[in-house]
Sequence to fold (456 residues):
Amino acid sequence: MGDAVASSHVRLLAKDFRSSARAKADSYFILHTSSLKLAHCPRSLAPTLVAYVDHSHCPVLAPATLAALPSTRAIPDRDVFYLAHPIRSILPFLRVDFRVKPSLTGIILEELADFLRERGAPSYRAKQITDWIYKKRVASFDAMTDLPNELRAELTAEFNTLNTEIVRVLGSKDTTQKFLFRLRDQNLIESVLIPASPALYGQPSDRRTICVSSQVGCAYGCKFCASGLEGWTRNLDAGEMVQQLIAIEKESGEKIDNVVFMGMGEPLANLKNLLRAIRIINAPWGLGIGARHITVSTSGLAPQIRELANESMQFRLALSLHGATDEVRSRIMPVNRKYPLKVLLEACDYYVAKKRRMTIEHILIAGVNDTDEQARGLAKIARRLSAKINLIPYNTVEGLEWSRPSRARREGFQSILRKHGVIATLRREKGHDIAAACGQLRLQTKQAEREIRLSV
Fold:
């Protein structure tokens, strides 16, 4: 986009904001040229708008400034912004060009070896670097003491190391813990650390599972989930997914045995970054977690399910079904209107023929999908796919009207499934006291931060 066109676009949009209560004399708007989105920069952030001129005489946002700016829909490798004043719009517009360094935790070993080879460094240095990150867990290139100083300087210039900040940790009575992360662009995501069984006599749980987010927010709007209440913001890159595991292992002191991509977002809507993250998590040079201990959950994106069937990695797939008929499922999951059960189950047939087995997740919601009829329909689908079923009591979300069924109703639903020859487990309630369902802690924190800003 040319400077004149961009400046004209900002000027027209800024004019529309002049009468807005948000237009303050000392505030700015930022036009993100990749998406033509105009983002408001609050008065409290105005002093942080700092730019410098690089060697090509182009104003560049300082990293601290980027962190303070409102997030955009996506941050590619290089972004252009225009800063505009909504009141004094006759002032010159500042063109801002910023390069976002990729995270080293999102780089594959072979890519790192190629990077080193192009700079005349031996390829064995790649393994040294990954050992520092994944085995020794250092967070700074300066700590990689067996690398030459010149190489460390080049790595610092080209890559970020760990840049995901834990801002809140909530512990549960059953030792489930929820972690709230702030990303480089100030967006918030969540992860949950779940023990397989409660600790007995002071001994640790026999297995630790992490529930990982794959997106900031979610576009699919499942009616039981808090993740999509404020819509979708952007995909996480592979490094941001991997960093959730590294940060939680460091914070908790626990070794993670299982990974489930069941946190915020629809993993299969971010398939390229998801597969890259899984490769890093699974690789011996990475986190070394076996593929059979990695599970990807989906709300039912039929084309991507077919793509996964052709993947060589042997991770597991969990289908968030939540309704045994189109009528009930569409009420709960809007994605069913695009991929109704006939289309979805045909994709699942293809997956099962290639990969053998999948799991069905069914959140039990009182008066919605917990009837005997739904149980019989669910059993029929499970037998078709040779799938086992995980029954999950609904986690109450503030602002949503639904509730969980009684214990008797949950156990009765499970009993019907078993009578029809289906393996069905009823998940023990974990994290109910810490808002452990997807997106709840993020939503609460964003609402609290919004109230603080409005009160200033």
Summary: The first strand starts at residue 28 and ends at 32. The longest helix spans residues 440-455. Residues 63 and 174 are 40 Å apart (CA to CA). The chain has three domains: 3-100, 104-158, 165-451.
